[in-house]
Design goal:
Number of helices: 18
Distance between the termini: 64 Å
Radius of gyration: 22 Å
Structural class: mainly alpha
Number of strands: 0
């Protein structure tokens, strides 16, 4: 029978999974309706421009909050992030209604501004969630990461359903996109409510946050108060013992100790985002699937990424050297994608996308599992925030390198 303080593990795991879905839902929504945006803005390369707008903003927001992570109110940070994402998706719907689904330069600029808001929101809540869940059991982090991958599956599946439900015309694409965005927007509001009013009150969550507070973590104070608890002062036999209990490694020291894992994380996402979604959306040529082809490839990547985050992890697999070698070996996929797009068939492209997806998910899980081991609460929170920054750094570099696929082609 579970200890009283550890009750609610299943409910906490489900909420972590749902929060993982919601954390990327706004951004995935914008990526998944690229067929509609390519119809509205055929000359603006929205699949590549949106990530270019998004990455610097989310990276800057995350970097600033990493610097101040030890004193930031994590509760407000995460809830405000979800609410901003909810409002940004609602703004896309309002913009489309206001312009009657019209394209044009100014509509595209407005969408780019909404992307900026999405980036700030995600930079605020994603690092906060990684830091918060790093304080708890690895199971919660795995459910959160798998939820992030499930976000891609959910958006892709929902988009396939809405695309099939409406005719392949301007009006049909628009109706499908609006139904899709409405569902996604409602889900983000649900995530804000779950985190604010349910997650903090679960006994197992209160237990881990109280433990982190006893080790000197200040970021959990607001969540403990919301759950009806207060921060207890750390008491030792003398002042020196209490001071030692509060000591933690600096962010710089944590970075030096985990530099290899940081590089591996950057390498993983730099490769993945240099191929997904820009290359898969625009550079795979004409095929019998027509406009369905890009959506199928994106769905395959998201589904295998999800599967990769559920694969078992052992101590041997968490070897730092092994993770670095695996991250480097994935770069052999670059020439494979190049020649398959030029000479190969649809089956080979789907296979390569599957390998890219499952390796992305599994290596992400391994790195986030390996990083916070053997650290105290405040250090785990700092590492969660740091690795969120490394992940986004890889995303930003991948988005930049994605433009290299356009070399030799007309803009």
């Amino acid at each position: 029978m579970a200890k009283p303080e550890l009750k609610g593990r299943m409910m906490a795991s489900i909420i972590c999974w749902l929060l993982g879905i919601g954390s990327l839902l706004a951004w995935n929504s914008m990526l998944t309706i690229q067929d509609y945006y390519q119809y509205l803005f055929p000359n603006y390369h929205s699949a590549r421009v949106f990530p270019i707008v998004y990455c610097p903003m989310v990276l800057t927001t995350t970097a600033v909050l990493v610097y101040y992570e030890a004193t930031v109110n994590t509760r407000k940070r995460i809830i405000s992030g979800f609410l901003l994402q909810f409002m940004s998706n609602a703004a896309i719907i309002i913009l489309d209604l206001a312009t009657s689904g019209g394209g044009g330069f100014w509509s595209f600029i407005c969408l780019c501004l909404i992307v900026v808001v999405v980036a700030v929101a995600q930079g605020s809540q994603e690092g906060g969630l990684f830091g918060d869940l790093s304080l708890m059991c690895p199971e919660f982090m795995q459910f959160f990461l798998s939820g992030m991958a499930a976000s891609g599956i959910l958006t892709s599946s929902l988009r396939l359903i809405t695309k099939a439900a409406f005719p392949n015309s301007r009006s049909g694409l628009r109706k499908g996109a609006m139904v899709f965005l409405s569902v996604a927007t409602s889900f983000m509001l649900l995530c804000a409510v779950l985190y604010a009013f349910v997650f903090a009150k679960l006994p197992i969550v209160k237990y881990y946050r109280s433990k982190a507070a006893s080790e000197g973590s200040k970021t959990v104070a607001a969540d403990l108060v919301a759950a009806g608890q207060e921060m207890q002062p750390i008491v030792g036999d003398d002042d020196e013992e209490g001071h030692k209990q509060l000591e933690r490694l600096t962010t710089k020291q944590l970075l030096i100790q985990n530099l290899d894992l940081a590089i591996a994380m950057i390498l993983v996402y730099m490769l993945s985002l240099s191929i997904f979604p820009g290359f898969l959306s625009e550079d795979t040529g004409k095929h019998s699937m027509g406009s369905w082809y890009a959506i199928v490839l994106i769905t395959v990547f998201n589904f295998l990424d999800f599967i990769g985050r559920y694969l078992p992890v052992s101590e041997r697999i968490l070897s730092r050297k092994g993770l670095m070698v695996a991250a480097l070996c994935r770069y052999s996929l670059v020439p494979c994608f190049y020649y398959t797009a030029k000479y190969g068939g649809q089956g080979w492209m789907i296979f390569l996308t599957s390998v890219l997806g499952v390796s992305n998910g599994y290596l992400t899980l391994c790195i986030f599992t390996a990083a916070p081991q053997d650290y105290k609460g405040p250090e785990k929170n700092a590492l969660g925030n740091l690795f969120s920054l490394f992940l986004l750094t890889g995303v930003a570099l991948g988005v930049a390198f994605d433009w290299l696929w356009l070399i030799g082609k007309a803009w």
